[in-house]
Amino acid sequence: MSATTADTHVFDVREDNFEAEVLQASLTTPILVDFWATWCGPCKTLGPMLEKLAAEFNGAFRLAKVDVDQSQQLAAMFGIRSIPTVMLVKDGQIADGFAGALPEGQLREFLLRHVQPLDGDAAPPAEAAPESPEEAINRLQQAIAAEPERTELKLDLALALMRAGQADAAEAELASLPANLATDAKAVRLRNQLELARALKGAPSLPELQQRVQADATDWAARDLLGVRLLLEDDAAAGLEQFLVILEKARDWNDGQAKKRLLAAFATLDDAELVGRYRRRMASLLF
Length: 287
Prior knowledge:
This protein is an alpha/beta fold. The chain is built from 14 helices and five strands. 56% of the residues lie in helices and 10% in strands. Strands 1-3-2-4-5 form a five-stranded mixed beta sheet, sandwiched between helices. A hairpin with a 2-residue loop joins strand 4 and strand 5. It is elongated.
């Protein structure tokens, strides 16, 4: 592949052409950057799928291939710890990314969050259902068995276990991570999720908590647990609202727990717009 070929959606990139072919080019067309190496087994699985999708999306994005052995400075600049690692660059900035070889269905979902195929051919087929947490656990356990040296897979497994509701197993995997992964953004996020999940051990059900809050709006303990339940049961905005009420009406309750809950919640959420909105509301109450 040539970095200057105009009629292809896939090209090689190195330090000398990265700024022009990726950063500058991303101002008009999103660039998906695939950090890979010839010796990397998962790269051989992921690479062809990415190239297939680049063709199907028909120019909605371009795929830049970075051989980390030949472009070590680029890999260092982006903090690449494992390969394959993929980053989406839009408007000269990193917009999203992931590590590891995802299934094709998840790759399509990732791309469709940011770009739309120009010819409509890349719409996910009906049978390409999202990978369930249980399927992810099975896939990652097999990958760890095949490549035990890839310790970053254990972090992915811990996240999958948490998504499956297996908090104790997730915590065990998290505790076994090497020091270099302990401060990874994913690990920090998972710790906050586990902290919230621990608060619900032995807690009343969602309907019971709602009834308690309706009966007594100042039952801060019930409102706090209601917020945690809503947050972990995919109604993040409603959960954050409960914490804001406590922050507004009883800021110092339980040693300022509402603020702590909000900060922990922000660290677990992917929705940047939602987090930004509630951060501003929290700040308006505090300052």
